Amino acid sequence: MKRIFFALLSCLLVMPAIAQPPARIREAQKAQQTQQQTAVLPEPVAKAPAVKAPVKAQPVTNSATTVSQRADLEFPSAAEMPKDVSWRRDIYRVLDLTQDKNAVLYYPEEPQEDRMNLFTYLFKLMMRKQITVYNYTIDGNEDFSATNAVVPKNFLERNHIRFEEKAGRFRIEDSDIPSGEVNTYYIKESTYFNQHTATFHTQVVAICPVRKELDEFGTTPVSTPLFWVKYADVAPFLAKLSLNGSNYNNAAIISADDYFTTNQYDGKIYKTNNLQGKVLANYCKTDSDMTREQKRIEKELTTFEDHVWGADSAQLKRMELEKAIKDSLANLPQQTEKTATKKPASSATKVKKSDASTSNSSRSQTKRQKSSSSTSYTVRRQKH
């Protein structure tokens, strides 16, 4: 009896284990796998602080320099003049914007859609602090030191330009920008010989807009140089400024950088870098003396260039002369043929002249006949 009781009891204990639902079995297996993974994984170790590489000290630069460098990468311009050139001549010129070659820098007087003149463009770049401009000193020389940099607010107040300031930013209407009064520019250009490439270049170094306004009495116009700006700083931005390059073809567009780089402006010399620091007006008493001195300086540049090239330039001129002589000799037979064809025409004219002489003699003869006798004769010319 006891055996039967123990057998039934063992069956009752085994059946619940067999009758477990599959979901509980899967949960048990998942829990077992999690325990095994936890046992295998190592304990978390605290991360050591990352060792940073030593940072090199960077030179302190203002925002204008950073923006200029970024613009230079996007719009590359001509390379600057090397500092170790073997020969250089610095010349200051005045550009009159009323002349045709320089008028492209003046129009339009006020911005029109995406077009604006040079001064408006420079003025907006200065107010946005994208470029740094420098005060015009008494001696007229450019001073690109940090202490001579122009403060935009002081510039507006000194030149009586209306503005609104809000949170450190300035709002200026286009009609308040005195671009119509800037009809003259001073430029400094350097003509130099690069011994590394054996080439001559003439490069603009600095630009100065000049404002002409009436004095406090409103009678006499006064020219006021506003500021100097380095051409190297503004060149990447000038590559984006489009100018109308022709009075006869309005579709001819040229960038302001190409205009200055290719020296398409026309400016008269008013100063050179000399040991005495004199301008031409100091020792040229009359206008004729001024013109004569300007021509002399221009000739110095071309003379030096010819002297550097020496025999090469003389040989080139000799070759050009020989080519001109050959061309003239080649055209000589054609000229003789033309003269030969013209000879019959000359003979024809002689025949006509002889006919005219005979007709004149016949007329005189008839007149004599009429005078000798009373009988009238009629002379009829026959066509041959």
Would you spell out the secondary-structure blueprint of this structure?
Layout: H1 2-18, H2 22-40, H3 63-74, E1 87-96, H4 118-127, E2 133-135, H5 152-158, E3 164-166, E4 169-171, E5 182-194, E6 199-214, E7 221-225, E8 227-230, H6 231-238, E9 242-244, E10 253-255, H7 256-261, E11 267-272, H8 280-283, H9 287-309, H10 311-330, H11 332-372
Antiparallel strand pairs: 1-5, 1-11, 2-8, 3-4, 5-6, 6-7, 6-8, 9-10
Helix pairs in contact: 3-6
Could you tell me the strand content as a percent range? Answer: 15-25%
Radius of gyration: 46 Å
Strand segment tally: 11
Mean pLDDT: 76
User: What is the succession of H and E elements?
Assistant: HHHEHEHEEEEEEHEEHEHHHH
**Which structural class matches the secondary elements?**
alpha+beta
How does the overall form come out from the CA principal axes?
elongated
By oligomeric state, this entry counts as single chain
Describe the structure.
The chain has helices at residues 2-18, 22-40, 63-74, 118-127, 152-158, 231-238, 256-261, 280-283, 287-309, 311-330, 332-372; strands at residues 87-96, 133-135, 164-166, 169-171, 182-194, 199-214, 221-225, 227-230, 242-244, 253-255, 267-272. With 384 residues, it is an alpha+beta fold. Strands 1, 2, 5, 6, 7, 8 and 11 form a seven-stranded antiparallel sheet that branches. Strands 3-4 form a two-stranded antiparallel sheet. The chain has a two-stranded antiparallel ribbon with strand order 9-10. The protein is elongated.
Task: Please provide a brief summary of the model.
This protein is α+β, with helices and mostly antiparallel strands and 384 residues long.
